[in-house]
Amino acid sequence: MDSEKSESRQLKGIGASSGIAIGQVRITDRRRVAVTEVLVANEEIPGELERFTRAIERAKGELYDLKEQLSSTHGPEHLCVIDAHLMLLDDTMLVGETTQYIERLGINAEGALKRTLGRFKAFFEGVDDEYLRERGGDVETVVERVLRHMVGQKQEPLDNIEGKVIVVAHDLSPADILQIDKAKVMGFITDLGGKTSHSSILARAFEVPAVVGLERATAEVSEGDTLIIDGSTGVVIVNPGAEEFREYLQKKQRYEYVERELLKLRDLPAQTLDGHRMRLKGNVEFIEEVASVHKHGGEGIGLYRTEMLFFNRSTLPDEEEQFEAYSALVKKMAPQPVTIRTLDIGGDKCLTDLDLSDEMNPALGVRAIRLSLRQPEAFKAQLRAILRASAFGEVKLFFPMVSGVAEVRAAKALLEEVKEELRGKHPFDEKVQVGIMIEIPSAVVIADLLAAEVDFFSVGTNDLIQYTLAIDRTNEHLSALFQPLHPAVLRSLKTIVDAAHAAGIDACICGEMAGDPEYLPILLGLGYDELSMNAVSIPRVKKILRRCTVQEAREVALKALSFCTAAEADAYLKGEIAARFSESFD
Fold this sequence. Notes:
The protein is 46% helix and 13% strand. The protein is built from 23 helices and 16 strands. Strands 1-8-7-3-4-5-6-2 form an eight-stranded mixed sheet. It has an eight-stranded parallel beta barrel with strand order 9-10-11-12-13-14-15-16, surrounded by five helices. Helix 3 (92-105) packs across helix 4 (109-125). The longest helix has 26 residues, at 45-70. The radius of gyration is 25 Å and the shape is globular. It is found in: Cytoplasm. Pfam families: PEP-utilisers_N (PF05524), PEP-utilizers (PF00391), PEP-utilizers_C (PF02896). Residues 162-234 form the PEP-utilising enzyme mobile domain.
């Protein structure tokens, strides 16, 4: 380490994949292709169409070659990201709109493709759900690959890097992450990206420390600089001094020790000191995340988001395509259960097949179960695919954004129609459990009525907090008001679990609160039966669970419910955690 080469400085980004990495900077060129839109003569339009088509085919060939190259080192669950990008290259909206821009506007192929990308980006930026919003990055990655072929710009592959380095780039694609050799690449940092981007998800799956969203990392560091990155906090230290280096070396050793100790909990039961069991499961969006659920001791999948099958395309996925995706996931997770959420997207023209008009406020508009019930044939296709997948393992399904009993009964009626259609044609679980998400205030108020209609509740705490407090959780100016311990939220959580247990059904949590160990005593004390979270959070939550009793948790929950403000409840909870469970929060 050459700590004298320049003054130490700190950068702050988004911690995308936990862990501490120390190494030399290796800058790799992943800048966006610079494109200028220009008019072309009528006689040049056929040539532009040909250039576009040729670039698409070259991008496909590149991805097919990469998939073959990686097939010996990665399982199919990881290579499916390349399949997703190949599907995008065949997408009729992406190809069709670009072609129309070239023909109608008389512009060059690069400019037309950039216009199409702009439309995709505008849509995804308006999506409320963080996970879905980040899917726009997949479209941009594919478009950039095509543009590079148009302009003849090649990129250095990451599979031939030498030494022990930290890769610094403007952005990295999922394909880049698949090529990383962990023996050489200690971690990576990027200007762009978010915690739920596909690249970040893969980094966590492969346990590669990463910090993203640094904005100017490529301008702030130089080839050969020494970097320390903390993927948990998002801190990046450039050319650390001797004291900082020693401090983070100790942190790295401590982190790796704690992780090894936590993984020892994988096969131990998720139960309290007095023998009370609580199921801990994983939330997943891609099949490649299943390996992480297994590794961290998840007892199944408590939330499988199906939306990715419906995004980045102009036509709805048919029953067979959905069946292949769902059954592959169920087989990969078997014999542990998989809980599949039906489509939870808005109607703001994400799919032309839906033919819905623009809405002033999509978050309060035609979305989730409302959208599914307005499109019964598409909904039934998804239900058929889910039911058919239940022949390969334990499957539960649930409906999002339910506001009343009428919606539940309408959805269940369609489910019964689908069962009748499948009988004698395809095997499925006749007794598949059906649940609903509780995430809006009306569902909380009538939780007792809803409990009589279903087999389980799953609470989406992210939306429940947002709708209860009228807070846009993506608005940075309101982030301080997004309060999980607000009295209205805690009382809602109690109402939900009490109604569920009175009806003899389970109450589960699948929002961010489930994966935060600090909230475990409250959720356990309120009586929740199951928590579903990001897989890497499972051991930490299990550690707390195994060091307390139900009686202790009930006392904490009851006291937290007595406070008038979120700040009071938070101060109390932090004090109790420090007093009762401090050693568990290492």
